[in-house]
Amino acid sequence: ILPQDDVAGPAPRHQTTQVMVGNVAVGGGAPIVVQSMTNTDTADVDGTIAQVAALSRAGSEMVRITVDREEAAAAVPHIRDGLRKRGITTPLIGDFHYIGHKLLAEHPACAEALDKYRINPGNVGFKNKRDTQFADIIEIANKNNKPVRIGANWGSLDQELLTKLMDENTASPNPRDARAVTREAMVQSALLSAARAQELGMPKNKIILSAKVSAVQDLIAVYQEVVRRSDYAIHLGLTEAGMGSKGIVASSAALGILLQQGIGDTIRISLTPEPGGDRTLEVQVAQELLQTMGFRTFVPLVAACPGCGRTTSTTFQELARSIQDFIRDEMPTWKTKYPGVEQLNVAVMGCIVNGPGESKHANIGISLPGTGEAPAAPVFVDGKKFRTLRGPTIATEFKALVIDYIDQ
Ligand code: SF4
Known about the structure:
The chain is 43% helix and 16% strand.
């Protein structure tokens, strides 16, 4: 038997300064927060309310909305009101670029309704004395007692800073490659902006940092360096992650490594949705990443074998899918009705090889008959054989047993 400390686990969480975003704590040892972003036109009040509600219902603990023009800024207080009327208090974050200072100054109700402002230091300057845009946003945030996220992004990196670092690198006796200099520019863009915000009177417990990059290795290097040099609360995300499995794999690889190293207080999985696709997928992936790594529990996990030549029919895949969908759909209700239900483990297995064993490890599990096996599906509850299901109603009956189990 291995001694306990031979089992590798995640590194201790990097100690950061806690920031309250509305009623949600970020950093300072708080649970890692899942957030997402709408893709509606924010000026479309009803459409944005509907999507924020869907993301919240799926488990997004904060939602960011674009505030890109006058109409969007004017819509924000109405969106906040509409959500309150539906009983949704999920913190709303305004995503500002270029003219955020102007929109916030001219729409005080928008500044008040939002719970956090996202500033992109790459397109809101502060080094030029004539350029007061950054200072204006910080002043409005301070006046309204709101936190900010200073979000550097590889795709809109501060060009003035990058050019300065490139010039310094060229003149140095040991020049680094351009990629290393760009990584350094990302780190400095975030940290210099945060330091400037503090000079302008913003306390550290109002500042969250991010430094998003689209390549996994660059992202890991940049975030490692940001946390080595600071203790600001950290928002993690791989930018422009991409569509489908590529976006999920790249985000999970990058964020998984950083989370394992104790880095990250809130995460967003930035997926490009399929046309007409479900925006809530990014919330599901974020939750599953945190849950499968053992950092948080959100929904009961369904363990299912991959299926193989021993699987007799599609019943197995259909059952696994329908149990998973059913659990996810019911979770918003179950969460209040059955405290702790998210700890539940369900197994849906395809044959006798691993079926009974895996089902016994779950709270409730079923082993469907494989090729050559008798047409019977034993169900296991709390490690013991409970019942055997047969015939065309196996799926329905098993679902009912899951509900019974949760009820009890
Ligand atoms: Fe194949 Fe059976 Fe293993 Fe499932 S449990 S992958 S059906 S051998």
